Amino acid sequence: MTSVPVEGTRPSDAERDRALAVLRDGAGSGRLSHDTFIRRMNFVLGAQSRGELADAIRDLPRTEPRHRTWTRAVRAHLPRLKVETAVSPNARTGAHQHGPSSARSAAAALPERARPARRFDPVGVVASWLDGLPRLSLVRPAVAVPLPGLALPAPGSPTVRIGRGPGATLRMADESVSRHHAELRHVDEGWLLRDLGSMNGTTVNGLRITTTVRVRPGDRVGFGAVTYVLTWTG
């Protein structure tokens, strides 16, 4: 009885699919032109033997199924599990002190079966990998609150005295403002702001002033913890 060579047997559908996958990878990597890919694909679909399939993909590298590649990569990162049998200290010392009979009794005390090795759990591996990723938190940008306006004194108007005392023109209730904090007045060249020796200071555009300074509309002036933006006289 003569045996049929493996190359002469008719290929299965799974073998045709694997050959087509090799052709697709070859076309995707640029090893095969579009016309060559179409011609070989038709040849694979009409192949009558495994040898013809092998001829169609002989010059192309074989590709391993993706699930096998993924499994091998995951297993490479898994810690190796070492199964150890528990032996009591008395059994160990007895084996050395009392000779072969004690060793046999210590061996009899061992469990009949070692603990089974932990099974590979791909879901647990992926979950552990996801837990190790950095957490992203959304930070909402701070919304800028417009500052209240402070109208500059009109030309010829009296000096505006700012403070917490009863004699202040612009009286504030904030505890960070001194009783006699600062004064704002109009001159021929514009407006001048002067600190009156306040406890928490007077600022112009974030800078604390120690002398009389010139100010203009749009400047941010602060009296202690209270801040205004200067505006034209309404």
Quick take:
Keywords: Phosphoprotein. The chain has 234 residues and is an alpha+beta fold.
What report would you give on this structure?
This protein is 32% helix and 17% strand. Among the domains are: 13-58; 149-232, Tumour Suppressor Smad4 (Sandwich). The protein starts with 12 loop residues before the first helix and ends with a strand. Strand 9 (220-223) and strand 10 (226-231) form a beta hairpin. It is of the alpha+beta class. It has a 5-stranded mixed sheet, with no helix packed on it. A 5-stranded mixed sheet has the order 3-2-4-5-8, with no helix packed on it. The protein contains 7 helices and 10 strands.
Largest sheet, in brief, is:
5 strands, mixed
Structural class: alpha+beta
* CATH topology annotation of the domain at 149-232: Tumour Suppressor Smad4
| CATH second-level architecture of the domain at 149-232 | Sandwich
Radius of gyration: 44 Å
Q: Work out the helicity level.
A: 25-40%
Within the largest sheet, what's the order of strands? 1-10-9-6-7
The CATH class of the domain at 149-232 is: Mainly Beta
Instruction: Give the oligomeric state of the chains in this entry, treating copies of one chain as homo and distinct chains as hetero.
Output: single chain
Work out the helix count: 7
Question: If you average the pLDDT, what whole number results?
Answer: 78
% residues in beta strands: 15-25%
Order of helices and strands: HHHHHHHEEEEEEEEEE
pLDDT below 50 for ≥5 consecutive residues: which ranges?
Answer: 1-5, 81-87, 91-98
How many β-strand runs?
A: 10
Overall 3D shape: rod-shaped
